Amino acid sequence: MRNTASVWCLIVCTALLWGAWKISSSAENPTPPALQLWPFSRRAPAKSPNAPAPQSGPAARPSVSAAPDTRPTPPASASATAAPVNLPPEPMPDIRVALLPKAQKSVNLEVSQSFTVREIGTEKILQRSEKIGNTIVSATAQGLRIGKKDWPHSKLEIVPSQSPGVWIEGHQYRGTVRLYRLSGNQVFAVNVLPLEDYVASVVDSEMPSAFPEQARQAQAVIARTYALYQRAAVERGALADLQASTKSQKYLGYQYRDGKKLLAGESEASRKIAAATRGQVCQFRGREFCTYYCAVCGGSTVRGTDFFADAAPPLKSVPCEFCREARLYRWQAEISRTDFQQALAPWLKEKGQPHSVVKTVSLTRKTSGQSGYPEFDLRDGRQTLRITGPELRQYLGPLGLYSPRFSITDRGQTLEFHGQGHGHGIGLCQWGARGQALAGRSCQQILQHYYPGMTLAVHTWK
Question: S-S: 103 plus which of 186, 219, 223, 367, CB 3.0-4.6 Å?
């Protein structure tokens, strides 16, 4: 009987052990909860709202619900960027830069290398010379005078044996310098140099060397694009493609004198930036467009068509909170009524009201959303004249108006201006590019933020 009980006990225990093993084996490979797919210290990232929809077909996988992600979604402009478009090989163009705002009675010339003089448009050498110190160039009734020598030519080109070699008004330039005699016995000076040498100087002339590399690369790309656009758009017969001032883009040349100091107009760093972006340009529908840019946009850029007739579609208004560290992100100025009246005298004369005395100034049109400029009504007690923010800045800029976007508060004897940004506010914001680069964005991502819809293309120079 004891043996029978032992046998039944053994059977029952074996059955129990087999059942337990069966249950445990069926639990080895269940579908795990989504959270278990990640380490305990990390959550599964939520799907970005900018991510593409899942592909249909074998590559598509069923979605698995995940715990909510508290991390911020990366901005759209920080997403993957398209590969640049490579353009067919072509010779690198020269750029012609007007070195002075307008023709002058005389120009200071210096050449630090041996050089030749030739008439523009020919290869015929008129004279070979050793280097010369500071020499006055002036116009005569028959042509040009360089120092004590008269030339019966109205257009001459100074070609140094080594570049950089030619100085004009305390600035030394790469390439050659052309001298023109214009009407009124005036002299006009133009620097002709390879595009990439020009870009290397503009990078340092327009943007501080302390700015991050990706911001300076973006500056190089838009400077190159701007130059090529202006070169193609310039009127037939024009003597220059661009000006050396901010009327085009700032160009200081190779080096320049500031009192007793000798300062660099370009640097090894800017030459590396130009080389790293060599040939890169912004295009829209296969063509360069005018890549306007500003120093500080003040929180949002302005739609290009609000100010420039040739503004391309990529010059849209975009938000920009990356320039907050700029000194002129917000600014304030006070202008006395007397100074206000005197500064606006040319504008009032142009409007046929030279004797009008402005008594009140009121805002009639605010900035619309993230674009546009304000407009104001000026009243003299009898009539009302409307003036725009850009027009006011044109006449009042020297009195402390840094941009065309501002409000005006009447304080009795003074007018108080509260403004945002520095410059017209269109296109790339230089301080915003700095902020984006510090945040980890690439040159191309910065460009696509400020010029949405643009394509990055690369010229291959022969």
Answer: 186
